[in-house]
Fold each of these.
Amino acid sequence: MNNLFSLPFHQPVVIFTLVLLLILAAPVFFRRLKIPDVVGLIIAGVAVGPYGFNLLERDASFQIFGQVGILYLMFLAAVEIDMYHFKKNLKKGLIFGFLTFAIPVALGMSAAHFAFGAGLTTCLLLASMYSSHTLISYPVVSRFGLQNEKGPIMAVSATIVAVLLALITLASVIKLQTKGVFDVMDIVTLLCFTAGYALIVGLTFPWLTRLVFRKISDPVAQYIFILALVFIGALLAQLIGLESILGAFYVGLVLNRLIPGRSSLMHHIKFVGNAIFIPYFLIGVGMLINVHVIFNGWKVAWVASNMIIVALVSKWIAAWIAQKAFGMTSVDRRMMFGLTSGKAAATIAATMLGFQYGIINEDIMNGAVLMILVCCLVASVMTERSSIKMRIELTTAEMESTGVERPEFARQIVAVANPITAEGLMRLAIFMRSPKNPEPITALFVRNSDDPRSLRAGRFSLRTAAQAAQEMGVVAVEEERFDLNVVSGLTNMIRQNHATDIVIGFHRKANIVDSFFGQMTDTLLKESLKMIVMSRCFIPISTVRRIVVVAGAKSQFETGFHGWVARIGNLAQQLACKVIFIASVETSGYIEDIIANDGYGIRRIYQEMTGWDDFILLSSDVGPEDLLVVIGARRGSVSYSSSQEELPEFLSKNFSAHNLMVIYPEQFNG
């Protein structure tokens, strides 16, 4: 019993309980003092660590969870980014990355030489410490939903450049210290290995993930698989001489579009990371910091002050130059400075290696520890303040924005009866709606008999669809309706809920004379003028590579034109996949106006279609990993033509094994 509570604690249950209490209580306590959560967890680590009250040792659990936490943080930063905005700002981010590396190196080497009288290897080592940074305050950006803004994206892009160059510098310093010479071939070899690593991981990981996701739908198994890929990627990076955090970040980038932001998988990734791994890492960082070195004499204070000023000023100058060069706002500058001024993983590694090889003395090592603490505090405070300011500005701009009137939020009804397809239909419907849509979604099962088998299947379908919506953060209302037939049940529910969209699965032909859409669908198209979406996906919607949209002539004159373009825009944006619009030049122009004015960040190309005969040629390259979307037209509508009569037969003949969606837009007085 005495050993159980002797300090520092060694009993695993006691250690884990104390850590959980810190994760729970520290943010609440420090928030009252207006201190960001990230800073609070680091300070909590200082307090309970070996240099504080010595309640906990930085044992194997903190080393393991701490390493997992930093890898998780880098992976999360990459997987949360919208790839459209990332690629759009990548060039600027790379330039900023070079600036935020080169300026600290130049200023750091000069300061080390003149202030400390240091030699070449010490100057280079300190320069690598100043230039590297860790996205320690990134959880703040994620919490405010700013990960796709220009400032954060540029800072994340810059992290890869700065850390990679800093690690190359560090490796060169160690080589110079141990062998007395600098071998350029080592750098060339590392770059060649890096290119090979990027190619292998970039090609195999997405392919393997699609394969597994099609075979396994269990969310726990999918999460474990993704986590395994992250650590395999990190391990492979280490094997070729890179830092593991670069591997974790790159895995996040290549898997980005396979993990949609509103999927249950992303929910699990963020939940586990923010609840356990990332807080564990932050507490572990705090436990490394020895605040007692402040009282070791004026020399340590002088060294630490010099290092802190150089580290922060050089990062601020880089952010200021980037802001001016790219015409960004002062809030963007503060955001970039906040994200790139934090120091942890690479800086700690450089400090330990430098002291181990005798490149730096104890005073500089102690100064580096204090620099890490102050930089973490400044980074967290600056990121928190700039995030609040940026969120206020963005929200204000959205409220005051004027321009093209957007359609109302979708009120969707998802008709389900088959447990096999219910989950897929619900996920598709949610991906097609705006992430800001506050309206609940209705899962509807219509029955016209008391047959026990269909009753059990229908009710199970309702539960499956509702659970899928709940996992994606959308409120689902389960409705079971008894009516004369399915069409009557649907149309009555449409009127009752003032629905805008009806999402249904494709009809299965019962016999050779049955129509492709089925009599029920044909009747529904006549009875309701609301937007009707029919879908059939053989693969999980999140693994779709491209969306191919075919729209006939005069589609832009339909009442529901803006509505279906918005649904495609939401779907493509959340799946981060390319859209190919096959339409007339005039229709394509109207589509582009809506996408640009409504701000859908999607990759898109346009192919001209002068008639439905062109559709046969242009759609020939639609593959099994693509989603073909055909915009239909009701008889008598503006865009209806005689070619529409042949559409069902054409789809049945040529696309029976493809992922297919047919949208009938809303009609006037729908």
Amino acid sequence: MSGNGKTPNRIPLSRRRFLQVLAGTAGALVVGIRMAEAADAPLPPALVGDNFYGLGAYVRINADGSVLINARDPDTGTGVATSLPRIIADELDADWNRVSVILPGLGVSDDNGKPRWTYGRQVGGVGGSIPAAWNDLRQVGAVARWLLLQAAARRFGVRADQLRCAAGTVIASDGRRLSYGSLAEDASKIALPTRLPAPKEAANYQLIGKPAGDVDAHAIVTGQARFAIDHHYGDALVAVLVHCPWPDGTLERSDFADCLAVKGVVKVLQLRPEPGQPPGSTPIAPAVAVLAEDTWSALQGRRKLKLEWKPGASAAADSNTFEQTAGAALAGKTDPTTRVRDDGDVDAAGKKAARRLDATYFQPWLAHATAEPMNCLVRLDKDQASLVVPTQAPQQAWAVVHRLTGFAPARIDISVPRVGGGYGRRLDHDYVAEAVMLAQSVDRPVRLLWTREQDLAHDYYRSGCVHQLNAIIDRKRKLLGWNQRMASASALSHRGVPDNHLWTSELQADQLPAGLVPNYRSDWYGLESTIPRGPARGMPHLSNAFAVESFIDEIAHTMREDPLKTRLRILGEPRSLTLSAGRTLDTGRLLNVLKLVADRIEWKNWLRTVNGLGIACWHVDGAYVAHAIEVAMQGEKLVIQRVVCAVDVGRVINPRGLEGQVAGATLDALSTALNLAITFKDGQIQQHSYKDYPLASMAQLPDAVEVITVDDDRAPAGASFLAMPTAAPALANAVFRASAVRVRRLPLMKELLRLL
């Protein structure tokens, strides 16, 4: 029931979901998707504006003609706060200048003590927001437009099919017009159709496919944007931590007296990981927390702590030893942990080889280094929790809070402002567990703040890895066989994933050149490590594309062939190949992006230019990407002169947003490849600041990234990290052309200077 006693109109959308329409306050029309049988749950007042409950409201049209649209997924810089609302706005034929975007935070209601998610999927920064929302959001907009047309038809006394919508108005054939605002109240009282109205034909799109600036851009560049770290409850205590250097260590001795003597310090507490809980849902390591009235007092108190930590078994961890163990595993005769794929007969093909080529590639451990450090604001009342959390996955954050508090599902309110970078780090919620545990220990809200040093030294890292690749080439230069072996520590270890699926965070069965080589084998050797690991941006494509695309370049060099020609021959004629899990590889689309970057960078000159040209391509879940890079060597200085990237993600919602995402991911990947590595000795991380973990400077990066986007009528695919996998191999391949030095180990600059 709505707050005014009216029963919402319903129409089946799928087996367990419904479209709904409500009459809001002051003549507003509210349209959304409701989970079947959902109990009452509060909604953003700005969007609903009344005592309506349980509705996943996506669009509200007010009597003054203004439109509010919900962007359900957290925006970590990927632009979904712009692209998702534009899908609805286009179907609605709304005036984009009258649209305001609402970030609703977590939507959850109570279903007999279990959570029911008001908006369905709510995950940001993993490349799935637009594909997951495409059909639902178009349908919401189409239903809202249909209701407005019906209301206008009654007002004009004509059939609805004689009317059209444009920029927030309904227009009759004789030129009469009615604004959406004037029709909103009448539209909210019309019963939904027995058959859902069809979404627009692509030819009628007015916003989809047209460039638009980020809805938060002005607020961000003027400093007005509020991230989670900017939020504060007036009576909240500020909490800062000192984590144990070892995740399995213990506090041997402590003296809190000097800390407690600092003016403003209220309390010092110990935190311990909860036994049996998976990584990312409990504190990452034992810690001591200083709670104070303000940030300055908390930090000053932290400096006064006297702590002695006792290491656990993780004190034996060493990054050099880890790499040696990986190399030994690949060099030995032991069976792999998992045979990921085995096409044809690689061993038999080897007997027919005219040439064989082997290479080993090394990649370091990596940290996330998000711009906004980990933080969480939490208030716990008798039976209510209110949090402000920078998270990529609010439902997983909810699960942590629910486990620790036992509160009813709808009594846990999680707000998610714009997130200052995710990269996979905020799919874990150890920092949320810390904040809640501290709030349970003091009768006040808590504002937890991590320092940059903590962010780097206590992360869920991407594991270092070693690849051994072997190519079998016949007398006609055909790639007859491919044998790939990889050793790494799974990011899924101890996270409830079956042992035979631990490889899925490290490899994909269908990655290039799988399906293109008649005899193909991929093995994974799982290594143990006490260093925390978790999801990371571009995983598993980032590490594998570097090895694979660098190796294909080496094959071309061995055969004295143009590397582009080698890739074109491996890809073959345009065709559709069936992959696992119902996916397909369209070699024509991959060929297209490859040729686009080659043409733009003038690849025909690859042998004649004094600079080095490098190229690489990849595919990710139905999306396709290629990079071409030009570099010059000035003594021992590497200058990246040009970078071209082409992407094909199917239907492009916001070309400007996509271009920004591609450019940003490219620069992120180049920075990672050039400089970044996490090392550890005696179980302790050796990088503690950007001085130790140097993100690339502007001088190291290209002046611009030239982005080519391919738009077609296929359903949209994700682009969050699409441009990351191919940047590093294209760079390494270009460096080889310019310097005759083949870099097989990252970070690139350190290895290049060693080999020159």
